[in-house]
């Protein structure tokens, strides 16, 4: 496997994923080179990330006017190991790699239906205050949910 | 020319356009058939429409919290006369065809750099109230701006 | 119901649909007005159309180098009856309205999970020759498949 | 400035850019949080990269059937320093950071019209053979053009 800075041990890294969300490559997501356009992978990351956040129970708070925070992308990284093609069915795996006071570092892995790893990635999301745009600490409830998603993955 | 329901006389129709906005076909907007994906034309319509609204001075009111209305798309129609390809420079022409109490019917024409008409279209935008989502009448100021854009086109 | 030119009798029109494909509104498909951006509906139309073509068995021929034809969009029309929002689960209904020598007129209907019709649409696809770009007649096999999809819908 | 792994000295890094391409944030590129959706930055990177490749004279070879190679994205990285908003005019700066036998490492910087750095990024493009999909060495002509773009930047 390729040398990717954010992956220490590939087998351990793969085994750390327990959540995945299915996507299928749309026609409008291909480009004239006949494969998935590179920019569309981040749409899959976003969809996987949101479904993951819903799964662990912290997405709703961001969508209602009740909460003061919204998640913004701090950085993103993506490695393209295999080209993806129209109509391929993919699984977008998402896991938490690290939790900060106001942020969370997520890792991503996309597999095709032959089980081959096509894409790896990572990126930090930061919760910012809706009005100030400044980093905004996780409340206890959210922090607990973030943590428990790691614990359950490690069992 | 093709028979298109919303165009009575093609020459008159073409001559009615006085405003245009330039766009260029992006790589990520092509698809595996090697041409511009059909769904992306509506992005050009939207961009042309917004620039047109800015030109005649009614866009700002929708973007600030001052105004109570936002424009929503009521319907859209598009005829694809010629395929468009990566890197082509296009001009998106926009004009007002008719003005209602709460809506405006816009017509669109996209030409390539050889001056060939590649796309024609039309669609009605309705101003709705931000909170109720119901149609919301143009105020006098907006109505005047919409009307004067037609007058100036006809001179 | 609204008066829509391509729908004669709304109840009959609705009952004519037998095929649907599920989609969900992605975060990246919303815009700053907080709803689905108008341009993204055509992505749903395309996805529904392709899945429909796969279902009736004519998509494969276009994707392999074996066939000489590719389908291109001749025109598209869309009526927005209700706003769509992030995370809504939708069903994209597709049916054949009419078959020409080289083309097919498709109708679309998008319902939300309350069963409300949010979007209606139609558009003509033309089969063109890969090299000349000119309209290319359906072969007997394809024509039969197109026709049988209507017959089975009417039973 | 933030600590970003691929930037050693921020001032030197900024001064290394000599090429930029203008873009404007489209309405359809925003999302319901009211800012540019994170996935769209990569569209700007791609557009800037392609214009840069055209500028240094290596893009044409990839678009014609004459050449055997096409460029594919090997990895991408992006740091979001400031939120971007609808209608902002941006400059996408692109430069070559390193040249390999079959690849090139590009760096990106996006500034708003106040001259503030909003986005930084990098990513490696690899030339692969159209048929085999395997890495494909730069020919002398391309290598020269890649190199001269760095030299001219350093003068």
Helix proportion of residues of chain A, in percent? 25-40%
Q: Tell me the total number of β-strands of chain A.
A: 5
Quick one: biggest sheet of chain A?
5 strands, antiparallel
SSE arrangement of chain A, N to C: HEHHEEEEH
- The level 1 CATH classification of chain A is Alpha Beta
CATH fold topology of chain A: Thiol Ester Dehydrase, Chain A
Round the mean pLDDT of chain A to the nearest integer and report it. Answer: 93
Structurally, the number of domains of chain A stands at 1
Oligomer designation: homotetramer
Largest interface: A-D, 23 and 23 residues
Shape of chain A: globular
Q: List the uncertain runs of chain A.
A: none
CATH superfamily (homologous) name of chain A: Hotdog Thioesterase
What are the main properties of this structure?
homotetramer, about 160 residues, alpha+beta, Thiol Ester Dehydrase, Chain A, five-stranded antiparallel sheet, 4 helices, 5 strands, about 25% helix, globular
């Amino acid at each position: 496997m390729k040398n990717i800075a954010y992956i220490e041990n590939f087998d351990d890294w793969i085994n750390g994923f327990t959540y995945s969300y299915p996507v299928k490559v749309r026609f409008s997501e291909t480009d004239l080179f006949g494969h998935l356009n590179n920019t569309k992978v981040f749409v899959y990351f976003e969809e996987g990330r949101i479904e993951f956040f819903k799964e662990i129970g912290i997405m709703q708070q961001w969508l209602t006017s009740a909460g003061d925070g919204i998640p913004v992308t701090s950085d993103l990284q993506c490695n393209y190991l295999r080209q993806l093609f129209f109509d391929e069915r993919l699984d977008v795996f998402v896991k938490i790699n690290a939790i900060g006071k106001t942020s969370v570092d997520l890792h991503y892995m996309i597999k095709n239906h032959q089980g081959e790893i096509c894409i790896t990635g990572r990126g930090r999301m930061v919760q910012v205050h809706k009005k100030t745009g400044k980093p905004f600490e996780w409340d206890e409830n959210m922090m607990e949910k973030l943590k428990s998603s790691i614990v359950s993955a490690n069992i």
